[in-house]
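Subject: Sanity check before I submit

Could someone independently write out the structure tokens for this chain? I want to compare against mine line by line before I put it in a report. The sequence has 66 residues.
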Amino acid sequence: MEFITFEDETGTVEPTFFPRAYERFSLLLDHSRPCVLEGTVAEDFGAHRLAVERVRRLEPPGASVA
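---
Independent answer below. Compare away.
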């Protein structure tokens, strides 16, 4: 299981990557490129958690997506 901190101008979030998700998507995680995380959100003791199920890179406008 991996916990990775993501940050933008609105704050930080530490989603959970379970082993299969981390193995599948770790190569898409790049410090210099934005990405979109999708998964299941759960609330535990007032804190919200995101279990990542999918990662996709956010491409610049006009970029071709293969």
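---
OP: Matches mine. For the report I'm noting this point. The chain is about 10% helix and 45% strand.
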